[in-house]
């Protein structure tokens, strides 16, 4: 709302209640909508920013799980990364992460948590139990909550306040020309703030439209029909809002009506205009101006727009009566598929930022519009979402989408269909990234069988991808003979198909070298790593993360050969490259930190090694979880480092005792000593 009118007393009452109680709910009488609950909460938050020095966190109850929003807020604004392993109970994992956020909230002072538009309080209640008194929870809801929740019942505007609101929108002179009609208009709208504002804006656009005419239109549009007459009193406001929307709808050109319905198919999130704009860009922008003119669309930022939730529902209802409804859904699917296909296989930090605004809308297609995806399009939204989350090491989220993808493909296609193989491959590789090697192997073997039947004796690269992925899985399980067989078979396929100058050849050479490295056959690994590095430098920019991987790998060989002076500059260069390209909490950065720390440890450069170990372990724990093999390896490396530092008399024991992680490690070392004595 442009001007906040008629709620001054409620603002003061709300502040007093919040200071006396841990939780306050702004509730409309009997769940009535459109009374300005959200606006009151927003105005309160703006007015009391200085009161809540610990921060103000705004949560949308209907957008997605509130727990996920809290964790995302903590990660984005507080630099908190709740561990994945807080509880072994999978169903309570998110709850444990939320509680972690409350315990580790970094900003000092009172905190205001605004939870907007709660439909079912019991669904969000667990997240807000046992909070300290510094947290003030302010909810807007249509639920009539009972004690011990303290409730501020937000009533309809008083007649005088409603007149003042209308006057602020259309002007004092206009009301003075029809004072009695103005009162009747306010009464007919049920003194509902949202209805008054929309009608007031509608009048402001047409100065020649009288109040009497608008009142008659409201009556003609059905506010006095049988359904409204029979509805309970608490429903009047909602119907008043619907009638106000209907009035604005009638003033729209047909292309603006269609655009409004199309926008209602997007997720309840900011919509980048580039996702909307099609071949008829000029007409769409004209329609957009029409929507903005009638305040039916909100501008959220540069070339970014969003529908109010109630307006979104209104347009979705109108969509059911459009002849173009089915085509609009298919059109949206095509756009989201095209965007999802552009998400890189391994998105770097810049790509993640570019595509993040589209992710809610791609996800909404995956949730609600899969029946409008063609057979060729079916997997694309899910693969794109999987890549987006894998690129940030959010493997749990990626797995959920890729498991759904596999289920959909199995329901739509024969089990031998190539699309099923694609789904198996993507999910299998994500399981591999999580360290679930047995599950990964099962899916990858199924996919390989389908691909081999699909391509027969052809040396097709898709078969090579499966062979290579299985080689990685076997190598991770130390089944080296099987890994070597699959790796060389993949290399043979790629060489036959691509020749020698291709990135997949570099990948194959790198993996073969890594296999020999894992077996401590360093002299045999080195030439393969060198070939992979040279090929990647030839085919890629020098600053590419794949070049960093090759630098890391070659440095590791030099390290184990005792060639420390050759290893160090490669490790440092690789780490710098990865930090430029990847998110800060990416496992590849942890691996690079771990490698450099081990090098410094071997040179007795303990002060340089220790912070790198700590950083590496924390990244692994946050991104992969404490049970992941890489996290365990890093943990063991750190224990070995501290043991060596203690024996050499180079460890700061007082500092270790003051640090929770240090205490755990000291206890582990002491336990090992006692076992050795026994």
The radius of gyration over CA amounts to 31 Å
* Portion of residues within helices: 55-70%
β-sheet strand percentage: 5-15%
The average pLDDT score comes to 83
The CATH superfamily of the domain at 8-154 is known as P-loop containing nucleotide triphosphate hydrolases
Distance between the termini: 75 Å
CATH architecture of the domain at 8-154: 3-Layer(aba) Sandwich
Report the top-level CATH class of the domain at 8-154. Answer: Alpha Beta
What does this structure look like?
It is a single chain. With 678 residues, the chain is α/β, with parallel strands linked by helices. Among the domains are: 8-154, P-loop containing nucleotide triphosphate hydrolases (Rossmann fold, 3-Layer(aba) Sandwich); 159-250; 252-323, Orthogonal Bundle (Arc Repressor Mutant, subunit A), CATH 1.10.10; 582-678, Tetratricopeptide repeat domain (Serine Threonine Protein Phosphatase 5, Tetratricopeptide repeat). It is 65% helix and 6% strand. The protein has 33 helices and eight strands. The chain has a five-stranded parallel sheet with strand order 2-3-4-1-5, sandwiched between helices. A three-stranded antiparallel sheet has the order 6-8-7, with no helix packed on it. It is globular. The N and C termini lie far apart (75 Å). Residues 25-33 and 222-240 have low confidence and may be disordered.
